[in-house]
Amino acid sequence: MSLERRKKIVELAEQYDVLIVEDNPYGEIRYEGTALPAIKSFDRYGRVIHIGSYSKILCPGMRLGWIIAEPELTEKICHLKMTADVQNSTVNMYAVNNFIDMFDLDEHIGTLKAAYREKKNLMIQTMKETFPHSVSFTNPEGGLFTWLTFPENIDSKVVMSRALTEAKIAFVPGEPFFASKVEKNHCRISYSAMSKEKIVEGITKLGKILYDMGL
Ligand SMILES: Cc1ncc(COP(=O)(O)O)c(C=O)c1O
C-alpha cells in the first residue's frame, strides 16, 4: 500500500469513526525497494491496531504474535482471546522471549531477507523462462509469495487440480482473497519453504502444464 493510501486510510477512519486493523506479518521481510512507515505511525487518536507475527520471522507455525494498540483496546482484545482459546501456549511465549533476549532478532531477519530474496529471484527467473506469455506474475519487493494471473477464462482451481495430480504442486487459488467482486484467474505461490532445486523443478513442471492447457 502506497504512503498516500496509508495516510488517507487513517484520515477516513477519523472521518467515519472506525478502527483499523493493520495486519502486518510480512512487513519486516522487505528485501527490495523502500520501506514504508506503518499505518500505525499516522495514528493520532488510537484508531489503529497493529498486528505482527513471529510465524514469518522466527518459526513457521509458531502462531504467536503481538499487537500495538491503545491499552484500553489491548485489554479488551486479551479478554476476547482468552474467551476464544484460553490463550497462546505459554511455553511458546517463553521460548520466543528467551530467543529475543539471547539472540539478535534483527540480524536473524537480515539472514531471512537475503535467503528469500535469492529464492524469489530464482522463482521469477524460472517463470520468465518456462511460463507462457499469457500468464503474468508479480515481482514482489518482500514477503513470501508471488501472484500469478491467468487469462480471464481460466479458473485457478482447475489449474491447481491438474498441478496437484500431475506434478504434486500446490498453491493457493486467489478467490478467497477478494472482499467483493471475485476474480477466479489468480493464485498465490510461495517460495519460502522449498529448496532452490525444488523451486526450479516445480515451476518448470507448472510451466509445462500451463502450455499443455493451451495457455
Ligand atoms: C496476512 C496474514 N495475517 C496473519 C497471518 C497469521 O499469522 P500467525 O501465524 O501469527 O497466526 C498470516 C499467515 O499465516 C497472514 O498471511
Identify every distinct bound molecule in the structure, by name, code or SMILES: pyridoxal-5'-phosphate
Number of helices in the DSSP assignment: 6
Rg result: 20 Å
Distance between the termini: 31 Å
Mean pLDDT equals 96
Instruction: Give the biggest beta sheet.
Output: 4 strands, antiparallel
Along the chain, the helix and strand elements come as HEEEHHHEEHEEH
Set down the secondary structure blueprint.
Elements: H1 3-16, E1 20-23, E2 48-53, E3 65-68, H2 71-85, H3 90-102, H4 105-130, E4 136-137, E5 145-149, H5 156-167, E6 172-173, E7 186-190, H6 196-212
Helix pairs in contact: 4-6, 5-6
Bound molecules: pyridoxal-5'-phosphate.
Concise synopsis of the structure shown:
This protein is of the alpha+beta class and 215 residues long. 45% of the residues lie in helices and 13% in strands.
Account of the 3D structure:
- By secondary structure, the protein is α+β, with helices and mostly antiparallel strands.
- 45% of the residues lie in helices and 13% in strands.
- The strands form 2 sheets. A 4-stranded antiparallel beta sheet has the order 4-5-7-6, covered by helices on one side.
- Strand 4 and strand 5 form a beta hairpin.
- Helix 4 (105-130) packs parallel to helix 6 and helix 5 (156-167) crosses helix 6.
- The mean pLDDT is 96.
- The site of pyridoxal-5'-phosphate has 6 residues, from loops.
